Structure formats: C-alpha cells, structure tokens
User: Fold this.
Amino acid sequence: MRLSERERAIIVSALKRHFGDDSRVWLFGSRANDSARGGDIDLLVETNLAQGDDIVAAKLNALAEIHCQIGEQKIDLVIQRPGGPQLPIHRVARETGVSL
Assistant:
C-alpha cells in the first residue's frame, strides 16, 4: 500500500466520521500496489447511509477534510450504499483492494 500511516489514518478517520463508524473503507487501484508508481487515491466506501442528499454531503465534507489535512491530491471516492446497484467497480475494489 502506497499511503503513509498518517495519510491512512486521516482518510479512515474522515470517511468514518462522515459516512458512519460502521462504514468500510477500501484502497484500490495503483496506490494499493506497492510496485506501481504515481496515481490517484482510489477509495471505496461501503456505508449504511441510504439517502442521496446524505451521501453527497458526506462525500463533499469528507473530501474537504482529507484535502485540508493531506493536501491537494486526486482522490476518487466510490460509494456503495445499501440496496444500491452492484457495479463492476465495487467488485474490483473489494477483490483487488486493501481494507483500511
């Protein structure tokens, strides 16, 4: 995993604060691969938030908090909500990613 312990802690803390303590966070893509270089931070959040407005607010607030603490970096945040569609990106993130 190509995140520092500090970055990992900041990301997990912010996402759980905004999406709920019971949410699960996965790092996937090139940052999950120790031998890769560069790349954005690809994250999957599995949350129990179900309302679209709540999810949008949580996403915006979490990303703002993360950017304030670790600086401007490209972060792709994919969200899986209860009853939401199971997209291929969700499966790929869980199969190839690292649980944070």
The chain has a mean pLDDT of 91.
